[in-house]
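User: Okay, second chain of the day. Same drill as before: sequence in, C-alpha cells out.
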Amino acid sequence: MTAATTITAFLRRHRRRYVAARVIRWAAAALTAALAVWTVMAVIFALFPWIVLPLVWDISVLLLVVACGGAIPAYAIMRRPSLRRIAGMLEARLGRPHQWLTVSVELAAQSSPASPALVSGVLDRAKNSLGNYPRQISR
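Assistant: Same drill. C-alpha cells below.
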C-alpha cells in the first residue's frame, strides 16, 4: 500500500466515525424534543380528552420518522466533510505545529506535482505520524 492510499483510508475511517457521531447526536436531540412534545400532548389529552389529539400524536410520530429519514442522508452524503477538513480537525485536536496530514491530502490530490521528491517526503512523514492521532474527533 502506498503512503497516499494509507492516509486516504485513515481519513475515510475517521470521516465515517465523525459522520456517524453527528447523525447519532442529531437523532438523540430530535428524539428528546419529540419525547418532550409527546409528554405535553399526553398531559393535555389526560386533562382534555379531545378526539383530535391522537391524530396530532400520529402526525408528530410521522414527522419524526421523516425528519430522521432525511437527516441521515443529509449528514452522510450531502453535508459530509472533505478529507482535508477531517485532516485539519485531527491536527487541531492533536495540537501539532506541523500539518503533515493536511498538506499530504492536498499534495496527493494534485495531478502533476511540481516536486515528486517533496510529495514523497511529505507523504512518508504523514504516514509515519498516523499513529499519533486520536481515535475520535470530538466537536
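The helical segments are 3-47, 53-78, 83-94, 100-109, 116-128.

User: Thanks, on to the next one.
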